[in-house]
Specification:
This protein is α/β, with parallel strands linked by helices and 279 residues long. Helix content is 40%, strand content 16%. Strands 5-4-3-6-7-9-8 form a 7-stranded mixed beta sheet, with helices on both faces. A two-stranded antiparallel ribbon has the order 1-2. Strand 1 and strand 2 form a beta hairpin. Helix 1 runs parallel beside helix 4, helix 2 runs antiparallel to helix 4 and helix 6 packs parallel to helix 7. The longest helix has 17 residues. The N and C termini lie far apart (66 Å).
Length: 279
């Protein structure tokens, strides 16, 4: 029989040998998930004999992570803007930089007292559901095409008890738009150029290509938004978009003839991560 400390160290060694970047953090999360304890318990009970069944569960989780499966998928949920969102195969994992996108949108919605919001390419719903929960006075339409993502989107809407939002299945690239006229559109669309997809790190390949691949130059969704979605926004409407490193200027060029103002916004790492459009 192994002690708690021995079980943990065994899992950590496997992750380190697999070159998992944040092996200690990931191992701690997986141990807590399998044993249903926090880090303090693990440390204070280090010399206790580890439960055999929970040890087997932990070992199975460790092997999944060592294979490259994202930690977030294994845990089944991930924190975004202070709330847990269910995630798994078929949905993009919420990322910290997207919280900055949400913060900017929230500020604009409050300042201009906007009432109707569209979250385009909604995925897990982390953007739109956060907006709905933070500003109960507005209504959010969450638009998503793919069934795999819709599963988690609907699950998160129900689990978080959101009443001022609705899910709509639609194709963001289609010119046949839902009959909506929002004040603001927010989106983190697929933006990885097709040619760069094979070079993405191992963990990212577990995420759906449909949430990542943005066409030959990574900009096909921005063109569709400029061509199709700007015309349904209310006058003086706003658009907040997340984008890839180095794409800001190209996206501004796409919107320049179809909007009154365009702004590139840099993230905390000084990357041109967002574009703000005023119709």
């Amino acid at each position: 029989m192994m002690t708690v400390a021995q079980v943990f160290q065994s899992g950590l060694s496997i992750l380190q040998k697999a070159d998992i970047e944040d092996a200690l953090f990931d191992c701690s999360c997986l141990f807590s998930s399998a044993f249903q304890v926090n880090q303090a318990w693990r440390i204070t009970h280090a010399e206790d004999t580890a439960d055999e069944q929970k040890t087997e569960q932990f070992s199975a989780l460790i092997l999944r992570r060592a294979s490259g499966e994202p930690l977030q998928y294994i845990l089944g949920k991930w924190s975004f803007y202070g709330r847990d969102f269910f995630v798994g195969e078929g949905v993009l994992i919420p990322r910290p930089e997207t919280e900055q996108l949400v913060e900017m949108a929230l500020q604009t919605i409050r300042e201009k007292q906007m009432k109707t919001v569209v979250d385009l390419c909604a995925g897990s719903g982390c953007i739109g559901l956060t907006v709905a929960l933070e500003i109960p006075e507005c209504f959010v339409w969450l638009i998503e095409k793919y069934n795999g993502a819709l599963h988690y989107l609907r699950k998160n809407l129900q689990a978080l008890g959101v009443k001022n939002a609705a899910v709509l299945q639609a194709d963001a690239l289609s010119a046949d738009l839902p009959d909506l006229h929002p004040d603001i559109l927010i989106s983190n669309p697929p933006y990885v150029p097709d040619g760069e997809m094979p070079a993405l790190q191992k963990e990212v390949h577990f995420e759906p290509d449909t949430a990542l691949a943005g066409g030959a130059d990574g900009l096909q969704f921005y063109r569709a938004i400029a061509e199709n979605w700007l015309r349904v926004l209310h006058p003086c409407g706003e658009v907040f978009l997340e984008c890839g490193d180095g794409q800001g200027e190209a996206i501004v060029s796409i919107f320049r003839k179809k909007s009154t103002a365009q702004e590139i916004i840099y993230d905390f790492n000084n990357i041109d991560r967002f574009v703000h459009i005023t119709v």
